[in-house]
Amino acid sequence: MAREERKGESKKYLDKAEEFLAIAKIAFQQSKPNAAAFDAIQTVINANDALTVFILGKRASMDHKEAIDMHVEAVGRIHDASMRPVLHSALSSRSEVGYSGKSVRRDEAERFLRDAIRFVEWVKNYVK
Question: Can you list the domains of the chain with their CATH numbers?
Fold first, then answer.
């Protein structure tokens, strides 16, 4: 079930996204692809929370499907679904990247990082 939040709370989620993104960049530079990828994924999740709180006044609190559903509702209002594949990729990869024994390759980490940067910049266009 979604959690209701005041529109002004969106800034704290965007701040968290930018903090995770900064650490993801450092981890990538230090050749730590697992940490870089996981923090990049967390970046996207927090940035999506910022978007849905700002647009809808709520954020997902149960699972990834709820986060995607709320994203679809929010982007329907702004008429820009261009980042939906990035969110879907991040959410579908989170468990494997963060909790499995599989290591993330450098090129995969770079893709997650690049996507996270794009996603945050995109969210900033709508969260003011």
Answer: 3-124 (1.20.120.330)
Q: DSSP state, 8?
A: G
**Residue 4: what are its φ and ψ, rounded to 5°?**
-75, 140
Exposed, middle or buried by CB within 10 Å (0-12, 13-18, 19+), for 67?
buried
Question: 3-state DSSP call for residue 25?
Answer: helix
Angle at 17 between CA 11 and CA 20, to 5 degrees: 145
pLDDT at 8 over 80: yes
Helix (H) or strand (E) holding 110: helix 106-124
**pLDDT computed for residue 118 by the predictor:** 98
Mean pLDDT of 83-96: 92
DSSP state letter for 62: S
Mean pLDDT, the chain, integer: 94
Q: Write down the pTM of the prediction.
A: 0.94
